[in-house]
Write a structure and sequence with these properties.
alpha/beta, TIM Barrel, three-stranded parallel beta sheet, globular
Length: 255
């Protein structure tokens, strides 16, 4: 069971709401993935849209928790303002904090993220910050009172998979709050690896929305999360340079 800020989730897979062909496909992917939390950019919410064409009509908030995000914000002021608007319009204190530092890579701004997190935590938000896979940065965010840390696996939407597995292992050791690997995974094996490295959950969007068969990929991601978590909890065998016989040779009859 995944617990964030006192709320429990059976699913350890968080999905996005962008880049789908249509809202119906998005909803079908959410259902197939088993997700219990989806992230949503405030700019995608049109509260005046007619029923059936509003994205909120396709998110079951009785079953799925809404995690608004500050995507597209490049300054602390923009991120904080967006978070405040999201809390008012969507009636939730939960926020995925993004303060982007580079337009080309979409890597987060470490200083801006820390400053915005400090403000939002003080204002009572449940802050889940998108950040680099730096254990020092993640430790500082956790110390500020963030409910989780969300280190990237690779650039957003790149599909490159886990670029720095050792960094993620160090982040896992550095923080006691949940670690949610965010951005850059491309397929189910990437998700399984993230979980095997100790991630509490994985957040993804493009890997499903951009797949040839998004619904089938959503199912694959669900299986990858479950398999990776089971493997992490089971504990893998040590790596060895030489072979070890799987069948003992002691006591064998010899002619």
């Amino acid at each position: 069971m995944l617990t964030i800020a006192g709320r429990q989730f059976h699913s350890r897979l968080v999905l996005g709401t962008g880049r789908y062909a249509d809202f119906a496909t998005m909803a079908a992917c959410h259902e197939a993935s088993g997700t219990e939390m989806v992230t949503l950019a405030l700019r995608r919410v049109d509260l005046n849209a007619p029923r059936g064409s509003n994205i909120m009509d396709f998110i079951d908030r009785e079953r799925v928790a809404l995690l608004p995000n500050t995507a597209g914000c490049f300054t602390v002021d923009d991120a904080v303002t967006t978070a405040r608007l999201a809390r008012e319009l969507l009636e939730t204190p939960w926020i995925k904090l993004e303060v982007i530092g580079d337009e080309k890579t979409l890597f987060p701004d470490p200083e801006g993220t820390l400053e915005a997190a400090r403000i939002l935590v003080r204002e009572g938000f449940v802050v889940l910050p998108y950040c680099t896979d730096d254990p020092v940065m993640c430790h500082r965010l956790a110390d500020l009172g963030c409910a989780a840390v969300m280190p990237l696996a690779a650039p957003i939407g790149s599909g490159l998979g886990i670029r720095n597995p050792v960094n993620l292992m160090l982040v896992r050791e550095a923080v006691s709050v949940p670690m949610i690997v965010d951005a850059g995974v491309g397929t189910a094996s990437d998700v399984a690896l993230a979980m095997e490295l100790g991630a509490d959950a994985v957040l993804l969007n493009t890997a499903v929305a951009g797949a040839k068969d998004p619904v089938m990929m959503a199912r694959a991601m669900r299986a990858g999360v479950e398999a990776g978590r089971w493997a992490y909890e089971a504990g893998r065998i040590p790596r060895k340079l030489y072979a070890t016989a799987s069948s003992p040779v002691d006591g064998l009859m010899v002619r």
